[in-house]
Design a protein that fits this description.
It contains 14 helices and 22 strands. Helix 1 packs parallel to helix 7, helix 2 (about 80-95) runs antiparallel to helix 4 (about 115-135) and helix 4 runs parallel beside helix 5. It is about 35% helix and about 20% strand. The radius of gyration is 23 Å and the shape is globular. The chain is of the alpha/beta class.
Length: about 500
Amino acid sequence: MTALAENSAAVTRPTLDTAYGLFIAGQWRSATGGADTEVIDPATGAVITRVAAAQETDVDDAVAAARTAFDDGRWAGLPARERARILTRAAELIRSRADELVAVESVDVGKPVTLCRPVDVLTAADQYEYAAALAHTLGGHTRPSPLPAHAYTLREPLGVVGAITPFNFPLILSSTKLAPALAAGNTVVHKPSDETPLSALVMADILTEAGVPSGVLNVVTGPGKVVGEALLRHPDVNKIAFTGSTGIGRHAGALAGEALKPITLELGGNAANIVFADADLDRAIPAVIKAFTFNAGQFCMGGPRLLVAAEIYETVLAILAEAVPTVPVGDPFDAATLMGPMVADRHLRKVEDYVTQARTEGARIVAGGHRIDIGGGFFHAPTVIADLDNSSAVVQEEIFGPVLTVQPFADEAEAIALANSTLYGLASGLQTSDIGRAHRVAAGMQAGIVWVNDWALLDPSIPFGGVKQSGFGREYGPEVLESYTKTKSVVIAL
């Protein structure tokens, strides 16, 4: 898929194929009418390749291929241990082709190569290994009953899954859906983001090499208004797994609801990170900076709202003013870089608009507050904003960029109230040395996952997902199988 040599000593910006096609029924093909679209390197603003822009008829073909592959049992009919063997092989191939995946993900999204390998690529391998283990657990149970009958349950795959994934973590968030869906015996039509589609195409190649039969996985690239809508409305798609913004998630949920089609929604976030006066600041400050600069702030489980005990508020701001400007921002292929660009110019301009609004409202810009001119890319300085009212849109809305708002609180009750004061509830965190407080505050925070004394500690065994307008359903952990299977009861009269 790329001209990058496997197992290269150092990952460099790759030379990509002229154009990438759709992957349908085990074959690469052009979109109907030959339509395609540009893929931009966010670090340079240059066109790096083109990908097919599918039409509705292409989606129909992909769904038909997935439906045939499900109905004839070429995948669901395999013993669970055989599906597990293939998924384990996929994990092995991800690791063996890590340099290629790192290069593709970095040039496509702007992720620093030093973070992309352990965070994105190796996590994806872990996801497939964990899903392989889950495949062995898909059994039913006998149910004691006073009826004159023998009753038991079966766990069965749903059928064709439409997976719709976003631009910010394309490899991880596609694997989060594909791996458990496949482990359960479903077939999949995957629509990756039209801004960052490349690792999804590489994964089609890897899963095929691992032994996934033709038609079981189909990858259809193109605009959401065409491909996403067609998947949501298609009568032969049995379930939708969606990660994206809350606004688009509402629309997706409404369309799925029209057909009474099950959907899981992992949506936006605007997490609070609480620093109590008893926190170890040498440990807390690095966690705070990681929480809002990781992936240039394009992280739905990031921590863009910092709540600080009033007695240490100015102390923390002074530390951030000194530390945040030292975060290495630059070319993702430079080993020294820890924060790369925004994925596209429109995202960069959105961040600039929020910073401008904060200035208009009289906020204090503690650090950053401006774009950075690096090689024509879409870079914004990590930015810290203090003294905004909690009602400000800059505090309440998901900025999705490297911006941290900082607010003081008087006591534990106010900290929890401020943390829960937005529409979102995907992640949250707190920094404290008091174990009792850690348990109390974690219990009070309205979020699907709470981190204590760090941020973004994730593992395929630990479920995550949203509450409130951050969505519903859980990914990771054994809980994920509930999203990709249905329960059938069998009752045999005696």
